[in-house]
């Protein structure tokens, strides 16, 4: 029987919208239209096949990947992870408002190694952790899942690509073998190019739809399946693996998805919001995400290793 992932079920009218209705900032007709729009987004995005039925990550979660398959996965994921920086920079450059630019820079700068800082909380005030705790939950000197990069500390070792490099080195892969376009399979490069075209689009409606879809894909469970598989591999074969890259992303992505819903609530009621383009951007980036994961699954089935 095919296992189907449960799509996140959070696309409902929030208390923020209810409060705006009560204050008279929105009419009942506007709220009803927004409710209908959220239902469309749920159908088109959250019920997309790559969210509800990712064959590759479901297989990966079993922890049965061979060392060759595992290295192939890490190499392709490193290309996506590193090339995402270009799309994130384009998104920041093309943001239509200062507020959206800052939100985009939060993601980009954290990717590059600026640690989230919680206002009012001093850096370095944390409980002592074992090395095992740090790998599972993240070294508090290098990671945080809450706060802002504004005023945060930049550390080279906090860059997400360096965390992924830590995983790769435990499998015999090195920096020069990772992250470049020349290391990517055609399906991986297609995803990277579509991220730049859609997520980093200079059309704010396309970019908004792509961003919303990407963040909700990331929050829909694939990180958990990757963490489950890698944890099994670490416990049974490779105790030296460092998994903080995967465990941290698994914990933080739900927050990103929540932020995109708040952002959508703001842009939807603006006069220039284009519902059709928003759906187009999200649907096309989800199709590209499917190409990436399906490519990995086809490589696995056909025993393609690079």
From TrEMBL:
The keyword Lipid metabolism does not apply. Residues 123-144 are annotated as: Disordered. The keyword Oxidoreductase applies. Residues 129-139 have a biased composition (Basic and acidic residues). One of its GO terms (molecular function) is oxidoreductase activity. InterPro entries: Haem_Oase-like_multi-hlx, PqqC-like. Keywords: Oxidoreductase. This is Iron-containing redox enzyme family protein.
